[in-house]
Amino acid sequence: MKKYLTSLLITILLIPFIFAPASSQAAYSEASAQTYLLNHSQNPWSTMALAALNTSSIPADYLNNFSAGGAIDYEAPILAIAAMGKNPQDFNGRNLADELKNFYASNQLGDPGAINDDIFGLLALAASKISSNDPVAEGTKQFILKHQNSDGGFTYDPRSSYGTASDSSSTAWVV
Question: Which residues, in sequence order, are CB contacts of 102 under 8 Å at separation 6+?
């Protein structure tokens, strides 16, 4: 799962390189991607990308004391911590998986008007090695599946006044 998620992230980050002119493509290498990521501000997504590149030293001090106001604020840091091979259930004396689970209410995780926090929450719980039989993981999965559209896809906000047409991003997150 870790390799799949990190490979997916690398692919997303490298789309500009893939569709660049041929001369730019020739200059691309994992080393240049690593250099680029190391020279820009660190965040959970760049940390996951560096982990996928097997970077030996990943600057991730920002994860040591991050604060979170909602479920969505925990999810990417948990995924980054797991991508680095560390345990989100015992990270600097914190059980981040349990902290994330505290946002579970009314059979869903986080904001009831959004599905992305449920999707990334389920991924974060899986990355934390929480059993799929765990009541929060199972309830979150059921919430996601309950909001699958008839065309098989998903929408960012299943209760949106903008409509509930499936979108490629939300559907890709679920897949």
Answer: none
Q: Whole-model pTM?
A: 0.80
pLDDT tens column, 105-118 = 988 999 888 888 99
> Which pLDDT value is given to residue 26?
39
Q: Which two tokens stand for residue 34?
A: 């690593």
Closest CA to 43 of 2, 13, 3, 1: 13
Average per-residue pLDDT in the chain? 84
Q: E strands within the chain? A: 104-105, 108-109
Contacts of 47 (CB under 8 A, 6+ apart): 58, 60, 63, 80, 83, 84
Q: Say if CB 159 and CB 113 are below 8 A apart.
A: yes
Note whether 83 and 47 are within 8 A (CB). Answer: yes
